[in-house]
Amino acid sequence: MTSTEESRRKYDALADRYEDIFFYVADVGRRLVEYATPPPGARLLDVGAGRGAVARAALARGCAVTAVDSSAGMVSRLAEDYPEMLVRQQDAGALGFTDGAFDVVTSGFVVQVLTSPQDALAEFRRVLAPGGVVAISLERQEIGRLRWLHELNKEFFGGGGGSPMTADELDALLLSAGFTSPTRVTVDIPKPLADPAALWDWMAEQGVADAVNALPTERAVAFREGFFRGAEEMHRDGGISITFGATLHRAVAP
């Protein structure tokens, strides 16, 4: 399997609020389609379509869009919002399409969360016609001025589940899947926040508040105190702004 039942439940729960919480996906989706440069009428498959950030940008460009996602909640809402798309619930590593069925395959912030990204990339190549293009966005992990928050999370929740995929690693996976001519560009999208409370509210929507509430009471209180102490210092020292970074990757199916 390339996507877990846990992640499917997560995205089902977030379906209605996904693009409000993850403020960058619409902008990055538009840029990803521009980077892929599909001509009008191109047969485009968007894998892990979510609420349609990439797919609707492809529609606006005149593509014939097919969108798939492993989350039933995402698929249901996407089909309702965009009846002009063909929308299906499918796993990225087991696409139900014939060989060479598409001219372009896009995938926004999906490959990095899969347990078997190589299986998904093999499927992307299989369903692409010769000369077809794959375009993928990858989150770029940079701590920057939020180092205090990174250290706070490490103190209370540990180091996490390993290192995230890097841009070099994704390019290597594309080559090993048989794609050629990989290129990439970087994207930075800032989001200023008014004050520490606004930063807390934004993080709470992503599940941080639930994680803190699951801590023993004294630890939960200590986390909140540390959070607001760090956020107040950041606010005084130039203001609070989250800068989301990504790389956009493009390669060709021979």
Describe this structure in words.
- Keywords: Methyltransferase, Transferase.
- It comes from Actinophytocola oryzae.
- One of its GO terms (biological process) is methylation.
- This is Methyltransferase family protein.
- This protein has helices at 5-14, 18-21, 25-36, 53-60, 72-81, 117-127, 147-157, 167-176, 196-205, 208-213, 217-236, and strands at residues 43-47, 64-69, 86-89, 102-108, 128-140, 180-193, 240-252.
- It is α/β, with parallel strands linked by helices.
- The chain has a domain at 5-142 and 162-191 and 244-252: 3-Layer(aba) Sandwich (Rossmann fold).
- A seven-stranded mixed sheet has the order 3-2-1-4-5-7-6.
- The model has no long low-confidence stretch (mean pLDDT 90).
